[in-house]
Fold:
Amino acid sequence: MPAKRIIACLDVKNGRTVKGTGFKNLQDMGDPEEMANSLQEQGADEIAFLDITASREKRPANMEWLRRAANSLSIPLTAGGGVKTLEDASKLLEAGADKVTVNTQAVVNPKLITEIADRYGSQCCTVAIDAAQGKAPNGYTVRTMGGTLDTKIELRNWLRTAEAAGAGEILLTSWNRDGTRQGFHIPMLALAKGTVTVPVIASGGAGCSEHFTEVFKKAKADAALAAGILHRGEYTIRQIKETMEQEGIEVRPC
Amino acid sequence: MIDLITAAGGNLGSVRSLLERTGTGYREIDTPAQLEGGSPILIPGVGSFGAVMERLNTTGLAEAIREQAIRGRKIMGICSGMQVLLKESEESPEATGLGLIPGRVEKLKKTPLPNIGWSRLERANAYVYFVNSYHAVTKHREDTAEGVTAIVRKGSITGFQFHPEKSHRAGEELFRRWRDAR
Structure:
């Protein structure tokens, strides 16, 4: 298996990087291109840009900052936010993204996943899922519109549908843990790993470097997203990778 | 100077950026006539084996590249552009590849699939970035630790399954070594 990846995620709003708790209380974190380059030099294995408010504001992600960032990076770049049509996805890929994420609109219309996969290959289509703990211990439901809408769709069903439609990867965010620093939602991520054979990227809740070790060892995630933990300056990618290495997890050296 | 084949698709922005970062001059090629001269040929590619071959056939570049290969011209393929250096692929059974390297392209037998991420190349002692579900099965190959074909090489023909343009400094270094090798 390839080395476990640390994907540095930048939530973007109006061309600025932001971070909030549970998708709310957004704070300005800096310029996306500058931050992406600094994260690349620190040892990020991949950069993900999510234009998090694009869905709610019913507009496609803005391209200009993406084009600038894509031109200056030499590691893989994922972009998403408000992708509603194949044309929206094409714009992100043509601006230089290597993969696009689809979220809300894929739930509304799973054929969107198939269209992107057919045109660009499934490896270009990452299905991002925000899921929340339901009432049953192993029950999780899918949320859309930047986490604001509970679709009541069971996570496992959606994972299977998304994979069958052509998803190349799953980016699974715990709506309950996001921004809490309490650690990744291990049972939910393990459930996802047991449900699909495409790679699963863990997201939401990282508060210390041990949380990464835990999600790779216990949930067997293929990659993990790091956002607030990096932007708050609490940990560097190097520190996270050093902890992983000490625990015997293969990482790409910084 | 490098002759960059633009007709086979691929993330051309990233490949151009790699050429610029490594100080490599290049010309963009989309017709056979432009292939005159002796510069090494670079074939990036994305999408299925069949889709890449269709684009190379429609433009007449497939035949032109085969002719150049026979004359010993240095050629490099990246990702799908590397897979079409072989003759056939399980991905597109109806398509015929360039056939410059013996062997065939087969689906990877591993999970998770697609194979996405950074794997170490032992000889180069470097991590490089892969995104693939198929790989070349040939004796002219160098593998990752888990048996995914990373590099194919026969005479003047080289293929990188990984993406040097997405592999940060390791990718630049491996590309430079290929470019500067005689």
